[in-house]
Amino acid sequence: MKNILALVIFTILFSCIDNSDLMPYDKDQKGAEINIKGYSKPDIIQMRMNGNPIIINGNNSYTDKIETKINFVLDKNETNELGIYNNQTGNQIAKYNINYNNIDDYKNLYFFNLPDIFLQTYVVKPQVNLGRVGFEFIFPNLGEFSGSSLESVKGVLRKQNGAILAEFNNIGKKDFTEVKIYTFFSATEPVYLELYKPGTTEPYMGSNIIKVKIKQDIGANLIVLQEKMINGTFEVKGEIDVVDYL
What we know:
Elements: H1 2-15, E1 29-49, E2 52-53, E3 62-75, E4 79-86, E5 92-99, E6 108-114, E7 117-119, E8 132-138, E9 152-158, E10 164-172, E11 180-183, E12 191-196, E13 210-214, E14 219-230, E15 233-241
Parallel strand pairs: 1-6, 8-14
Antiparallel strand pairs: 1-2, 1-3, 1-4, 4-5, 6-7, 8-11, 9-10, 9-12, 12-13, 14-15
Organism: Chryseobacterium oryctis
Protein name: DUF3823 domain-containing protein
């Protein structure tokens, strides 16, 4: 009889428990961490998470080298906005919508902010021995004016007389190429980068060779290629050297 009574009491108590209380309270949450490495010059910038300034070393705005780590909790059905702003004008430079499903895409966030250009990449100046020249390239707006669907192009760097100095198999939108190094030969003679479809000798757009005039400086050169429309004519320029800002 005692055993039957105990079983009845246990059954009543169990039936009074809300099933939701048996589930983990944080099943719809996830811990998130974002490692940020950036650079901005000359602009002073501010980063905000959901509108709130991110403090780095006691400062809510920053310039030059910028490094920090953000830790927070993500709810399954919410989106967190990480924004980068020009601190003087208040203009938004970049925005990242971070949620429960895409947080792995933002574990490492790299950027490089220069006048009139924002690169979503981390820049490291390569070591180039004395008397040598090193080149790296990136092409962030590939396809903007040409309409090309390519994600990268092949580059052939030549002297004025046509001699090949270096070849770059994949100049892409997101990251600088590996450095290619050669012996410095002139302080005044420019070099030319010809751009082709990957793995071919066919210009990446049109039928004429796309040739970009580039100033070579002794040491490292980190060149940003840009498609431009100048007086109605499509051109590619390589006038920005990130090394000038480092």
